[in-house]
Amino acid sequence: MRLEQLRMQGLRCVTDAAITLDPTINLFVGANGAGKTSVLEAAFLLSHARSFRSGAKEALLQRGATQMSVFAEIRHADDRVRRLGLGRAGVRWEAKVDGVGVAIGQLVRECAVVCFEPGSHALIAGAAEERRRFLDWGVFHVEHQFLSSWRRYQRALKQRNSLLRSASAPADELFAPWEIELAQSGQDIDLQRRAYLDLLQPKLQASIAGLLPELGAVDLRYRRGWPEEQDLAGQLRGQRGRDLARGHTTFGIHRADWSIAFEQAPLREHLSRGQEKLTALACMLAQAELYAEHRGEWPIVCLDDLASELDQSHQAAVVAQLIVANAQVLLTGTEVPHALVTVPSRVFHVEQGQLTRLL
Q: pLDDT tens across 67-107, in order?
């Protein structure tokens, strides 16, 4: 898939900017704070309805602005063209596909963007929530029933947690339907996640072999969020007393996690910060390749501040792999990265939120 046109309004320091993108390599250069990352952020928003940056959603809105929006024309591998829009005024997102209002899920299914940026090492060293997001984004794009199961689970979880926080202890029969729903939808999601990780493992092994061959074989380890030997419905019933005291549900797929173990580094603590970054990059590339295998096209790849995150040899390896894959790439840097000096690319200069094409 390719982003052909991209327009941003009221996004951080970008008041109003519109660009035509190259189908292969697009480079955004400029000083720190100029607004380069906001371009990548705009593309990512269309794919995830959230930013890859940490911080409150309100930070996306330009200071003094009352609303923000991102528009794009995207061309799929089968030559279908879609016009996508995502706007925010107040607290609610509004999504459109071809000018028609749609649910967020329909928008993000049309646009797939993966990103490697300075905070990506959190996928390996950070909290479990980051790894669940990564996993569920991948499952969403290969398993059509995932979104329905996920919505069912979230609704039941919200209702059970509301009961747990009630002033008086609710009767058992009030809990039963929500616990049954949690168990059924949670089991579906658990199976979908496991199946996805099984598909991801060989892609990740190949990606790691190219970036961190010294670490040896890779093992993906998954923890589903409740004891393996027991069913979730029984666990929820048995844990209800403790959950009442804590005011929230402590077992379920919302507590799941996964990790990577290497033959030569069996514990996460054995990895350096640089190895954490390369492992996160390998995960991103493996996920992109798996997406392409199932959907027939590569997702759009964003690489934020590539030169400061990777040494020259790894920069060259990643760029070469993406060129072979025929992926559209959006990169940022304070100057042209060494890996792109001899690679044809479209270059934009970014200054104070204004974008100017140079090449």
A: 999 999 999 999 999 999 999 887 789 999 999 999 999 99
pLDDT in tens, 244-290: 999 999 999 999 999 999 999 888 888 999 999 999 999 999 999 99
Q: What is the DSSP string of 242-262?
A: HHHHHTS--SSGGG-EEEEEE
Please indicate, yes or no, whether residues 255 and 278 belong to a single structural domain of this protein: yes
Residues 258 and 317 in one domain: no
Same domain for 359 and 264: no
**In sequence order, what are the residues at sequence separation of 6 or more whose Cβ sits closer than 8 angstroms to the Cβ of residue 167?**
none
* Residues 200, 222 within the same domain: yes
The Cα 251–Cα 334 span in angstroms is 46
Beta strands at 218-223 and 14-20: parallel, antiparallel or unpaired: unpaired
On whether the pTM is more than 0.90, the answer is yes
> What is the residue type of 297?
E
11 and 87 within one domain? yes
Query: Whole domain around residue 275: which residue ranges?
Result: 129-295
